[in-house]
Amino acid sequence: MAENSWSDFHRRWSRLKPPLRANCEVTAAIAGAIEDRRDCPLLLGVTPELSDIGTLTVALDWSEAMIAHIWPGDTAARSAVLGNWLAMPFHRRRFSAAIGDGSLNAIDYSDYSALFAQLESVLLPGARVAVRIYATPEPCEPIARVRQEALAGNIAGFHALKWRLATAIAAEMGNANVPVALIHRIFDREFSDRGALSRATGWSFDDIDEIDAYADAKTVYSFPTRGEIVMALPRSFSNPRFLNSGSYELAERCPVFVADFAP
Length: 263
Hints:
The chain is of the alpha/beta class. It has two domains: about 10-135 and about 225-260, Rossmann fold (3-Layer(aba) Sandwich); about 145-220, no CATH class. It is about 35% helix and about 20% strand. Helix 5 runs antiparallel to helix 6 (about 160-175). The chain is globular. The protein starts with 8 loop residues before the first helix and ends with a strand. Residues about 1-5 have low confidence and may be disordered.
């Protein structure tokens, strides 16, 4: 699993907005996607907006800091477990669903198959996967167009700019995996005058300077196309589809990926 690039990520969580952070629309979309499979869902990560979707939700996250500072706390209806998604510490055939928000994007694309293999082990027959993803569109705009759109004031939120830039990088490289430090480097190249960006968009320097958390990071995020996500599925998962996740900015690039487990 990719190393978390932000040692203090949990301290900045409250500043995140869609599309980076789930809102009520995303929560409703994922809850609706798993329908009557909400008895015991496995949550990949500790997204607080998804913590109460199930009758008993079990969250799995490798970061003690995230569990300590982001997770809303264990109750009779939810609990968080420290562990690796690629080596899950659970008994076989336990969970009625697997859910997450940006979970796939947090790991290397080459690890998707390993993650689905772990899910094959812990999901009950008939379980469903429902994970919001940040997908690279086909075709995808070039980096130069992202710059033009931002300086024209056509991108409402800074986090939308970051994801548009990241997917443009993935498309131009022809590789789903995007080093976080590369996002920072290209941002600095394209927006060397942060004052001009602030004036064009109305964004504060505090918002824009969030990108500096990516500087010198070793993390690699993945931004696959929809087709690449489907390609990573083993045969035990059927009927892959992509559902609308809301009306927030960039929602069309952030669908809920759904697949059914039928071993």
